[in-house]
Design a protein that fits this description.
Layout lengths: L1 E5 L3 H11 L5 E5 L5 H8 L3 E5 L7 H10 L8 E5 L14 E4 L4 H24 L1
Length: 128
């Protein structure tokens, strides 16, 4: 799995990356949502995890930008938050929502599922 994480807390990025990583997984991240798209394009992940609340740009705003970009629009996005999200995140092209308090095994299963979808999307995109 190739996962890209965008969260304003480097501590949380470190915790989630360490918890979800297994042999062969590659995880990259940024705490700056303003330059995330460039890094995502360079890394070409299978799945993206974005924090819902960040001071510079909301997770839904970033997800909308990712989905409007022809290069990144095929990558599944998961929104992660400390609680409920007061909007319908699916309107922003977000595949699912994860709560930070969920058990790590549950988060890992979601990431693996959507990573597989991302791999299929990437392969399908190359065929066209």
């Amino acid at each position: 799995m190739k996962c890209f994480i965008v969260d304003d807390s480097q501590l949380y990025i470190d915790i989630i990356a360490q918890a979800i990583a297994s042999d062969g997984d590659i995880i990259k991240s940024t705490t700056n949502p303003n330059n995330a798209i460039e890094q995502i394009i360079e890394f070409d992940p299978d799945v993206i995890v974005i924090d819902y609340i960040m001071p510079e740009k909301s997770g839904t705003q970033l997800a909308d930008e990712i989905n409007q970009n022809k290069i990144t629009s095929h990558i599944p996005i998961l929104l992660i938050s400390a609680g409920e999200i007061p909007c319908d995140y699916r309107n922003y092209g977000i595949y699912d929502h994860i709560e930070k308090s969920e058990p790590i095994e549950s988060i890992r299963k979601s990431l693996n599922l959507f990573s597989n979808i991302g791999k299929i999307n990437k392969h399908t995109k190359k065929i066209k």
